[in-house]
Amino acid sequence: MSGPVLIFDSGVGGLSVAAALRRHFPEAALCYACDNAWLPYGLRPDAALVRRIVATCKAAVEACRPAVLVVACNTASTLALEPLRAALEVPVVGTVPAIKPAAALSRTRHLGLLATSATVRRPYTRRLIERFAADCRVTCVAADALVGEAEAWLGGREPDAARLDMALASLWQAARLEAAPLDTVVLGCTHFPLLTASLSALAPTPLAWIDSGDAIARRVGQLVAPLTASGGRPGPGFATAPNAALAYALAAYGFGPPAPLALADAATH
Ligand code: DGL
């Protein structure tokens, strides 16, 4: 099976996954597509979102002809992996919160889950916690404000520390507990690893930040071997609302300026 690895997210969050793929497979051809016209996914109703994700990924697969699609979005993966697999012929790798490795690491048995409102309330996420962290306390924090901060940061503006701090107040409170303080945080949204330096600087105690990037890269390597090489060319970029800030962010991660992605299904607009 030849073709690039297609990375899909609502916005720039998938670039954290692109970075993990590049660390594991520096020569691999990558292609990036995002649905920034519908950002943020975490605040959208589920039924409309499923239709939209399937339509956007279909258009992106058509445009990129990839060997594999990486849904580099927890909000999309915890909702739409089954309909995506039914609608597409290429293999689909999803991104779900890294509860299992975080539970393996935590000494205090108290984890934080930082994700979008949608991911925090999904049954899929609840099942992950029951299955892999049954003996842990899990403090779930819906931190949608961080999505906008990561978008702005990659577009060239510093993250707003006061805004981050306010969104994370309940996480910091759990880290300050005297008995069994939280020691490990799952970054359950692909936008959040882009902010790790700011998050670490604000945290009241040293915390381990765990994301899914390495696990996704390993899964891609298992499914497609060998990966098609890029030959040193920048990966193509696609977006539902191309703009200059996105072009700036894509360029920093080795992708060309975004071309418009046209969706076939008018019902998804
Ligand atoms: N990056 C996405 C995720 O991993 C979500 C951002 C959004 O709300 O659009 O969940």
UniProtKB/TrEMBL annotation:
Q: Report the EC number(s), separated by commas if there are several.
A: 5.1.1.3
Keywords tagged on the record: Cell shape, Cell wall biogenesis/degradation, Isomerase, Peptidoglycan synthesis
Residue positions binding substrate: D9, S10, Y41, G42, N74, T75, T190, H191
Specify the superkingdom: Bacteria
What pathway is it annotated to? Cell wall biogenesis; peptidoglycan biosynthesis
Pfam families membership: Asp_Glu_race
Molecular functions per Gene Ontology? glutamate racemase activity
Looking up InterPro entries in the UniProt record yields: Asp/Glu/hydantoin_racemase, Asp/Glu_race, Asp/Glu_racemase_AS_1, Asp/Glu_racemase_AS_2, Glu_race
Gene3D superfamilies recorded for this chain?
Answer: 3.40.50.1860
Catalytic reaction annotation: L-glutamate = D-glutamate
Q: Which residues form the active site?
A: C73, C189
- Reported function: Provides the (R)-glutamate required for cell wall biosynthesis.
Q: According to its UniProt record, which protein family does this protein belong to? A: Belongs to the aspartate/glutamate racemases family.
* Protein's recorded name: Glutamate racemase
Report the gene name.
murI
